[in-house]
Specification:
This protein is mainly β. The protein has strands at residues 30-36, 49-55, 66-68, 79-81. Strands 1-2 form a two-stranded antiparallel ribbon. It has a two-stranded antiparallel ribbon with strand order 3-4. It is rod-shaped, with a radius of gyration of 25 Å. The model has no long low-confidence stretch (mean pLDDT 90).
Length: 102
């Protein structure tokens, strides 16, 4: 297991490595690039190979809707508020999609 930091080299004598992630060492959402160079028994280095992993969040935000005021006289305007909606940090709500259902 290895906690990868940008530019830090990890050497192994086996062809696989587990990337350690956790609360203090997680990779943020997005694309992360990795490089592999292999060495043969004569000490010859390969050209680098590159790979990418895309980290995504499966934590869904919570929508909360409120009508302001809760009762409105016919013909009067009112406001819908989604400001009580939340997402788990470091996530942020970036869009509100409103639909009238009845």
């Amino acid at each position: 297991m290895a906690e990868f930091k940008i530019g830090e080299i990890h050497e192994t004598d086996v062809p696989m490595i587990e990337v350690t992630v956790g609360p203090n060492s997680s990779l943020p959402v997005g694309t992360h690039k990795f490089q592999l160079v292999v060495v043969d028994n004569d000490g010859n280095l390969s050209e680098p190979a590159f790979g990418e992993v895309f980290i995504k969040s499966l934590d869904r935000p919570t929508a909360r809707i409120e009508a302001l005021p809760g009762t409105v006289e016919m013909g009067k305007t009112f406001t819908l508020s989604g400001r009580g909606s939340t997402d788990i940090a470091p996530g942020k709500i970036t869009k509100y999609i409103w639909t009238r259902l009845s």
